[in-house]
Amino acid sequence: MTTRREFLATSAATIGAASMAAPYVPKRRAYDLVVRGGQVLDGTGASARLVDVAVTNGRIVAVGASLTDTGKEEINAKGMTVAPGFIDIHSHGDGNLREDPRAESVIRQGITTIVVGADGSSRFSGDADNSFATWESRTNALAPAVNVASMIGLGTVRGAVIGDVDRKPTAAELTHMTAMVERAVSEGACGASTGLEYTPGAFALTDELVALCRPLSSRRLSYSTHMRNEDDQLLESIDESIAVARGAKCGLQVSHLKQQGTRNWNKIDACFSRLTDARKAGIDAWFDVYPYVAYSTGLTNLFPTWAKDGGNAAFLARLTDSATAARIRSEAIGKVELIGGWDNVQISRVARAEDRDAEGKRLGAWAASRGQDPYEAAIGLLQRNNTDVGMLGFAMSEDNLDRLLAHDLAMVCSDGGGFAVDGPTRRGSPHPRGAGTFPRVLGRYVRERRALSLEQAVHKMTARPAGRVLLADRGRIALNMAADLVVFDPATVADTATFANPFQYPVGIRDVVVNGRWSVRANEHAGTGGGRVLRATRQARW
User: Fold this and answer.
1) In 407-482, where does DSSP find H-type helix?
2) What's domain 84-293+396-472's architecture?
3) What is the pTM for the complete model shown?
4) Digit-coded pLDDT (tens) for 360-385
């Protein structure tokens, strides 16, 4: 009979022999995706590291040098830079998602999240029948190529309750409007925005804005503003923006900060001083900027706000009313002179097919080709198209752009729409920022003009905007973060879209991953819809 001691000795010897003969090798775990051999910029502003990034179930699960485990799919990033997916903190890229959820011009820039609802206009108002939650469901059903976060537009709120008229809200209306904002941010809206150069938002006074922004305070969300003026009253408009944030006890995001018109270019230092002084006083103030010397707006933006009281029909009537026409003409021509003349106005879009020959043309030259006075040509376009005419205005300084992009409080935005070189969203002559903003910063302003470093630029495109709108799991390459990634060549990345030909995609953005799914693969759209609506959280910013 074998004793217990003999059994144990025999078993130990057997196990030992087996171990020496065939050592145990664990199964190599296959990740969903591994990005291998790239110089990784994690989004925090730190220097690049040569590490691999592994993804499973849409999240980053490993970051380290020479990961041994394999991926079901792998990206060879040798010689490339790997960064968090870019976050466009001020975008209008949702405007065409229903027509074309591929969002080609957006995703090909390396943008994986767009923050919309800007300039006071959102696709939900906060009422029960038009809520954030309803919009979220409809947007997710589109299976968009990019993630979408949205602010609540205070112009949309005002329009839903008061309409397009110039008056103060009643006490009951203000209570209703505030409740709409409260509902939107409680459901996940990532802030509130205004467009104070546009109606009906332009009719809102400072005390109304303070009241509507108070729901942002407890959630640590920010007030984002296209200010009341960006040229002669620029500094006064910054003061008003700061006053709103101070009164509401919320953060401040000045949208697309600029100095329009040569006589205002020297105000850049005063802009910086006001914002830095506000921060010293305890206001969480920042700004965003796009890398172009032209802005994009509606042609009606050249005309005074007072003339638009009551909506389009009232505005068009005032253009020819003997009691108002001369005053409107004088103020509109003054605005055109401020930005350098009619040839600094380019028509980007018209509603009427018969006027399509104006798209992409400078208004002065187009009017001359027709034998028309440029003001009368502009009036004719507005009348025939029921005011639905877009324009670009060439009014800013590139030297100022260098300083704006490099400033410690800056973030990168496009303020652009989404379109494609083919299909239903190829129309008009849109601003090239819709296809080129982020590659343009990396190519022109980092590599060529050296206005800021690559690490700084990526930080301003990723972790900083993610923290600003409280997207807690975006904007960094780190464990457990969402797997939004972009692989690009810092030596060649560049925009190719121009004002003359905006329908051109950038170069050097090779691979884009959204929620762990390959969206751009080897410079081509992968056809996947990996995006979804993102909600703001209450977690701390970084």
Assistant:
1) 433-440, 454-461, 463-468
2) Alpha-Beta Barrel (3.20)
3) 0.93
4) 999 999 999 999 999 999 999 999 99
